[in-house]
Amino acid sequence: MSRRLPEGGRFTDRSQRIGFTFNGRSFQGFAGDTLASALLGSNQVLMGRSFKYHRPRGVVASGVEEPNALVGLGSGDRFEPDQRATTTEIFPGLEATSQNHWPSLERDVGAINDKLARFLPAGFYYKTFLAPVSFWKHVYEPFIRRSAGLGKAPDAEARDPDTYEHFNVTTDVLVVGGGVAGLQAAKAAADSGAQVLLMEQTAHWGGRAPVDGGTIEGLDPEAWVSRTVAALEAMPNVRLRLRCMGAGIYDHGYALGYERVGDHRPEADGPRHRLWRIRAGHIVSATGALERPLSFAGNDLPGVMLASAVRDYVVNWGVAPGDRTVVVTNNDDAYRTAIALKKAGLKVPAVLDARQHGGGALMQEARELGIRVEQGWAVAKVKGGASVTGVAACLQIGSGVVMEEIACDAVAMSGGWSPVVHLWSHCGGKLRWDAEGAFFRPDPARPATGADGQPMISAAGAANGFGGLKDALEDADRAGKFACQRAGFKPAEGGVPQADLPAEAPLAPVWLMPAGAGPELRMKAWLDYQNDVKVSDVQLAAREGYQSVEHAKRYTTLGMATDQGKLSNINGLAILSDALDQPIPQTGTTTFRPPYTPISFGAISGEAKGSLFQPLRRTPMHAWHEGNGASWEPVGHWRRPYTYTQPGEDKHQAVVREINATRESLGILDASTLGKILVKGPDAGRFLDMLYTNMMSSLKVGRCRYGLMCNENGFLIDDGVVVRLSEDSFLCHTTTGGADSIHAHMEDWLQCEWWDWKVWTANLTEQYAQIAVVGPNARNLLETLGGLDLSKEALPFMGWTEGTLGGFPVRVYRISFSGELSFEIAVPANRGRELWDALIDAGRDFGITPYGTEALHVMRAEKGFIMIGDESDGSVIPQDLGLDWAISKKKDDYLGKRAQQRSNMRSPERWKLVGLETLDGSVLPDGAYALAEGQTANHQHATQGRVTSTYHSPTLGRGIAMGLVLHGPDRMGEVLEFTAEGFDPHGSDVAAVKARIVTPVLFRPRGGKAECLRSSPP
Amino acid sequence: MLILTCPCCGIAADETELSPGGEAHLTRHGPGSGDTDFEDYLFNRENARGVHFERWRHAHGCGKWFLAARDTVTMQVFGTYPAQTTEPPQEIRDRITKARPGWRWRDFGAAE
């Protein structure tokens, strides 16, 4: 059984007991415990179940590489799934729940999958769910959705009450990893005077060295670490951060650090997590190495752990994973575990060393302690179910004939060490295969490079393939000095600390145990514990033709678990290489992508949530709208009133009231968000002739013209009214959403194509408030304010004037977007609210009614005016919309003209704009398709058109719509069937609405008393 | 996350300050051009593995467009220069030649 040892534990403080719960049961641990060490200390070995077969799972590692012990933490608004027990520091009141089981961790129904394992091999979901098609919707998809996902998603209504923040920092040198290599690299770099930032993902400096022993400068590694940390803390140019992981490395020395500020003390003030956004002159990756499991049958049972993890639990937390631990290894390092267990008073029945010739000094030391060592032996099979009861030992070179059964309750395994090359690789650093150590290591000849083409990252110590203490420190010193040099500093004189550690005998690569294991054993030899990928699955993938390591990964899901292959990667590709009969370097690795381990969404979003999510743009009249019942519609960063509801009214009723009031008497609209771009200079007319499809240079001073803008693909991108202010200046109105992009579009052409033209632009959108006064009483209202002659003669349709209106300096445009008599009044923004109030006040006698964007949209649709983003979608040309009248035939060139001459653009088969009226007066569904005879190549209904805008028209008392229809303008009066709610494109039963093709101009089609916005009739 | 120096205002700008504008040194083909020329202008782009010339705009800075020469694999930046030109400055071409002898990109390249 696993239990707390009577004494020991570098990290734990036994004077401080801490209570927490696991699956609702109360547990106790000590200050300094992780959730994993505290559970192990209470004999709770079972911590979860695997993803596919629901096999029982215990903790296998002691750090970030842990694939099994994932738990849900907290509850309610603070619930978070998939947290590693090995990196969770306990605190009073911590609540943890295990995952992936029902009804309980001990008794799990889904474990039936384990019995079916034979029928669920690699890629089973690609093979199983193919037919029949009708099963997909009702059988397969619900099944997959129920079994998919690890852990439980937080409640949709939960809101994270914690705060998060971003730090933006620059530093000369960033060192990631606070083991002895990181400390030495930081020291070597800092001694030059360079600014150094050193971050360590755990709560402790020193990494593995204090557990693994040896001496540095005659000191115990722990003492050397303390001394070095103290020295670094005393340097003003060094910043040190614990619980801060180097998450990712990006181009040009950009790095992300993920600091868990408050996870271990949730009651403390301050942010929970902090994201460090770092620009470093040079980066040192001293991220250490990870131990690899060995592949033998039953290596996934709870109680089988990495040898280094077993040692960590004993030395760091005073916890014994078992009373009798068999150690199985292919290298010398695992002997340290045997020795540590023995010294802690625990039993080590045997060390099974797969190497025929055994190990070196450490093996000797173990033997001297009385530990039985069997050379050339291996594990044939681990005995037990929910826990380990023994191992069946065999010869490594054989097929698994059992030599002896050894009773034990824990197994410590070591398959060698792999450098953590993640950060080195994130930005393109290449690896080379080290045959002696059987691992991939950074290739110093091919690092990731920075803006100057020189290396921007160095690996150091174990992360660079130098596992021994002496070599690691030498390498780290070199890396630190190189880093400060690259950042522009001169390395200080200073030697490498002398280190002493027993020499180790070479490792023997062991990818399968025993070497000749048959199918039965291979089916029980796990590679990826969380996703349940076994040796047999990878071999099957190879047989089925998945030769690329990236394909095999996706087919088998090897390395796709939340640990991203930290344990399984090398073992898996060694098996794949063997199956493909090619050397490991030829198989290569999958791609290492940031982040190194998952980081929280909170840290990524930082302060950007709620009202700080994005800036909000407010018109000068925003507060008035807010105080008068506006419901908001987001348009870009603006908020525009959708409609103003009055007591007892719903939104639809409000829109109807606004439209009727406007058409009958007087409406008023805040149009301030419309883009207003001033284009000025001797070549301004020539420039606008290129930008708009119409001729703008011929526009007379004092006049307005509606214009269309296309991109070079010929597609319509924006529209609006252009005003000629003077001989050399034009004011271009754009859509609300287009103001910034159209201004950028203008600048692009001016700066990059026609840079010798004398034209300047300025985006004046926010400089002016703009108010549309609309309806039969519009002129009467403005005349009560007085000061300007706005008669039909003085200010004809599509004209503008300026002067003083009721004491306000204004420019008045006589334009209309509704078919009603309409004036748009521009006033300096700081007087916008004042003018609005004056108009509202003076308009009372006319029943002035403010209206919002929905009324605006309905009225323009009644009049057949297009709306950018409704009738246009990036694939529509003006000709599709019947806007040929706005395309100049006289101009040799404008942006988009050449593209509109392409054959597909001139095709008579293009869908064209028409109006649509439902036969029953209902409102067509938005985006509905017009059905045609027959089927498409995908066996879906053929279509012949679609709805682009659809509304209920209070003016006409029925549903109206606009749409694009094949040969539409030639088919007036024809009735089409449109898809309705619930339409199934594969089905034979058609839910359809019938609508007749009509003119898009449904309101006052012949102009009537008031003129429309178009300066020439369609 | 690139850092490019804006040749207009001189600021070494973080990529978040910039907006990308695709390939540099395109020749516009308008009405009257043949289908092949127009197709090249509108659609066909270099997908360089190595030396590449790009348009960038210092969107959250001075607002000016500029051009950049860089290596798409190593991220080495050979230089940035104002957009008002039809070809990269000789100084930048020399720098590329030094780092990538024999380079070629559309009509530009190291002297044979």
Verbal overview:
With 1018 residues, chain A is of the alpha+beta class. Helices cover 22% and strands 28% of the residues of chain A. Chain A contains 25 helices and 51 strands. In chain A, β23 and β24 form a beta hairpin. Chain A is elongated, with a radius of gyration of 37 Å. The N and C termini of chain A lie far apart (87 Å). Mean pLDDT of chain A is 93; it is low at 1008-1018. Chain B has a single domain (3-25, 40-107), classed as Folate-binding fold (2-Layer Sandwich), CATH 3.30.2270. Chain B has two helices and eight strands; from the N terminus they run βββαβββαββ. Chain B has helices at 35-42, 90-99, and strands at 3-5, 12-14, 19-23, 51-57, 65-71, 77-82, 104-105, 108-109. In chain B, the strands form three sheets. Chain B has a four-stranded antiparallel β-sheet with strand order 3-4-5-6, covered by helices on one side. Chain B is globular and about 40 Å long. The model of chain B has no long low-confidence stretch (mean pLDDT 95). At the A-B interface, α22 of A face α1 of B.
Based on the model shown, name its key terms.
heterodimer; A: 1018 residues; alpha+beta; Ubiquitin-like (UB roll); FAD/NAD(P)-binding domain; 6 domains; seven-stranded mixed beta sheet; six-stranded mixed beta sheet; 25 helices; B: 112 residues; Folate-binding fold; four-stranded antiparallel beta sheet; two-stranded antiparallel ribbon; 2 helices; 8 strands; EC 1.5.3.1 (chain A); SoxA_A3 (chain A); sarcosine oxidase activity (chain A); oxidoreductase (chain A)
